[in-house]
Design goal:
124 residues; mainly alpha; 86% helix; globular; binds protoporphyrin IX containing FE; Cbb3-type cytochrome c oxidase subunit I
């Protein structure tokens, strides 16, 4: 398995643990204000990162490129800032809205970079 796949799976499982902890906290407290953060931690973190890792494992040649590495850091950095900021925003910190907005755009940039990785693999 390429190193970038392992990095993606290790990061993804950390997000799943964090997402489940937020889900358990909501269930125990009967307070569902953070449901949007819970869903994004699980879906942008665990699900999407696992898919990125699996894609690289299936296309090991594309996994060794500089674009793949930069994409990992852009996407992961964006999700790492966006999800805690979203959690805090939804639980009563409206001042964090600009942080959520900017980090969401960074996450989107990471997704567009992954689109380039996919299309390059198809034409290789
Ligand atoms: C032990 C693990 C989990 C617990 C305890 C948990 C708990 C919760 C709770 C309490 C809610 C709020 C329900 C409500 O608003 O009525 C919720 C919503 C949600 N969860 Fe989880 N969850 C878990 C795992 C996951 C995973 C693995 C995913 C995705 C891969 C996920 C995705 C979602 C989504 C998308 C929603 C929003 C659903 C909606 O608003 O209709 N959850 N979860």
């Amino acid at each position: 398995m390429p190193n970038i796949s392992k990095m993606y799976f290790m990061t993804a499982i950390c997000f799943l643990i964090a997402g489940i902890l937020v889900g358990l906290k909501m269930s125990i407290a009967h307070d569902y204000a953070a449901v949007g953060a819970h869903a994004h931690i699980n879906l942008l973190g665990w699900v999407t990162m696992s898919i990125f890792g699996a894609f690289h494992a299936l296309n090991p040649r594309g996994a060794e490129t500089r674009l793949a590495k930069v994409q990992y850091y852009v996407y992961t950095g964006g999700v790492l800032v966006m999800t805690p900021a979203l959690y805090l925003l939804l639980t009563g910190n409206p001042s964090l809205e600009p942080v959520v907005a900017v980090s969401s755009l960074i996450v989107f940039a990471g997704v567009l970079m992954f689109a380039a990785i996919i299309f390059r693999a198809r034409t290789a």
